[in-house]
Amino acid sequence: xxxxxxxxxxxxxxxxxxxxxxxxxxxxxxxxxxxxxxxxxxxxxxxxxxxxxxxxxxxxxxxxxxxxxxxxxxxxxxxxxxxxxxxxxxxxxxxxxxxxxxxxxxxxxxxxxxxxxxxxxxxxxxxxxxxxxxxxxxxxxxxxxxxxxxxxxxxxxxxxxxxxxxxxxxxxxxxxxxxxxxxxxxxxxxxxxxxxxxxxxxxxxxxxxxxxxxxxxxxxxxxxxxxxxxxxxxxxxxxxxxxxxxxxxxxxxxxxxxxxxxxxxxxxxxxxxxxxxxxxxxxxxxxxxxxxxxxxxxxxxxxxxxxxxxxxxxxxxxxxxxxxxxxxxxxxxxxxxxxxxxxxxxxxxxxxxxxxxxxxxxxxxxxxxxxxxxxxxxxxxxxxxxxxxxxxxxxxxxxxxxxxxxxxxxxxxxxxxxxxxx
Length: 422
Fold this sequence. Notes:
Low-confidence stretches: 1-24
Structural class: mainly alpha
């Protein structure tokens, strides 16, 4: 059945009164910066205390909780599954309850997840914490963050780049915070209590800063005045699925390698401390990648940046499957760091560039939902390690996937308004 749509809704012409982004009624610059700061702080600690540090803490938790690496991989997979499968929740919550309530709920859920980790005595507590953190990450993370930042300023691309850069910096801090905690407390449980306190407070701070901003109410009437593709029409475009595939593939590589890189490197002669420091270096480069993507998107275009990201992620996976030496480790650090930093920004910008802001909340949430498939990476990696005695095979598989996605993005064409039928 053909989609009925008025193509005038697609354009972004400042003279059109229906384009509310063309009028000056944004929050004040001070309020914009306060909102950006609070959301970035929340995303900073989300990245610091979840995916990017759990792989560093896992060896200690595996020993203390008497887990197998298959158990450890399952928990990491559960974190990713919860994060992906609950992706529609922020869109529903923002539309029905508002952005303030959504961020407040995320703070409570995140604190509960970290508390489960801190109190865990077996795999049940570990799995419960992973599930809650996945839900909390979704509610307070990029779906909510990009929704807000796309609506408070005409320079939304710059704000989104700063936001993802902040997350990259958080990924640097996570392993270092854990190492500092080890020196002070000689255990991993106090670290999770620290995470519960800080992340919960940041979520409440973010909720307070966005409270009362009228253009963030998420109502249906407000969304209809914003130009952009209808959700159904966008879902029929091959470009949408190419963007989703590239984001999912890069997320699978990143999640799997953060799950097992420390263990893999220590199994091949590197100390646990040096391996953790490498993961922080990767996160530092991720922040540089996000900042660079924001600066270069206007010159190169988001699609070219996405291609660069998938090529880099493929190189990272292949490099870790090769014999360990200074050259392969350097490639691993550079390519994984820059690749993941770029793909976060490039994917968000591609959706906005190709399909507009009207239903970006739903489209971004759909992309995150479909990216749940990335959670299979840690599960498969743990299974292959237990059955084959190492992680090399999963790294080779991921490298091949990254290379294939690079080809898909190179062939991708932007959707045209002529594809829409009235």
